């Protein structure tokens, strides 16, 4: 690792990197689903550069409006989109929070500021929680890949990641 990473933090820093990689995979999967639901030759242009939040909103709106969506699978996709919302809230807390150690309890937490709040919101940072989030994101990535094949009626081959 680096001389700037304390010995006890190496595993957490490695897990955070793995979380970022899994989150990027989920983001790409959401983009592919949104592009397929758009069913336009310009779909990649339209979905390119959208934030994860915007991609989730687009997927939800397009699933409700698109004739390409298998109606029995729409609820499945919406459930996965909710899982993505929850996972990315956790991811954002670790990625954007200031990691600190409580001098009384010696527990590590990520302190995140929120708009219109005057206090930092803590979330515990444990290797167990980081591992759980990484696994949740990897599972979500797999489920979204499967969902692409089952939610979108394949009149043609789906756009791939």
Overview of the molecule:
There is one protein chain. By secondary structure, the protein is mainly alpha-helical. It has one domain (7-96, 127-151). The protein is 60% helix and 8% strand. The chain is built from five helices and three strands; from the N terminus they run ααααβββα. The protein has a three-stranded antiparallel β-sheet, with helices on one face. Strand 2 (108-112) and strand 3 form a beta hairpin. Helix 4 runs antiparallel to helix 5. The chain is elongated. The model has no long low-confidence stretch (mean pLDDT 86).
Main-sheet strand order equals: 1-2-3
* Biggest β-sheet description: 3 strands, antiparallel
What fraction, in percent, of the residue positions are helical? Answer: 55-70%
Oligomer designation: single chain
Question: Which spans of ≥5 residues are poorly predicted at pLDDT below 50?
Answer: none
Mass-distribution shape:
elongated
Tell me the distance between the termini. Answer: 31 Å
Q: Give the averaged pLDDT, no decimals.
A: 86
| Structural class by SSE content | mainly alpha
Number of strands: 3
Give the ordered list of helices and strands.
Answer: HHHHEEEH
- Number of structural domains: 1
Number of helices: 5
Range of strand content:
5-15%
Q: What would the keywords be for this entry?
A:
161 residues, mainly alpha, three-stranded antiparallel beta sheet, 5 helices, 8% strand
Topology:
Layout: H1 10-38, H2 43-47, H3 52-65, H4 74-96, E1 98-101, E2 108-112, E3 121-124, H5 127-151
Antiparallel strand pairs: 1-2, 2-3
Helix pairs in contact: 1-3, 1-4, 1-5, 3-4, 4-5
């Amino acid at each position: 690792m680096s001389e700037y990473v304390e010995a006890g933090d190496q595993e957490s820093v490695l897990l955070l990197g793995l979380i970022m990689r899994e989150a990027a995979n989920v983001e790409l999967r959401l983009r592919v689903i949104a592009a397929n639901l758009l069913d336009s030759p310009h779909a990649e242009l339209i979905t390119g550069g959208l934030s994860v939040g915007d991609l989730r909103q687009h997927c939800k709106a397009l699933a409700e409006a698109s004739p390409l969506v298998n109606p029995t699978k729409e609820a499945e996709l919406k459930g996965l989109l909710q899982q993505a919302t929850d996972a990315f809230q956790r991811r954002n807390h670790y990625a954007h929070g200031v990691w600190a150690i409580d001098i009384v309890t010696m527990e590590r937490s990520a302190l995140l500021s929120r708009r219109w709040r005057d206090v930092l919101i803590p979330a515990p940072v444990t290797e167990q929680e980081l591992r759980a989030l990484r696994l949740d994101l990897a599972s979500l990535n797999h489920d979204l890949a499967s969902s692409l094949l089952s939610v979108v009626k394949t009149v043609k081959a789906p756009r791939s990641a």
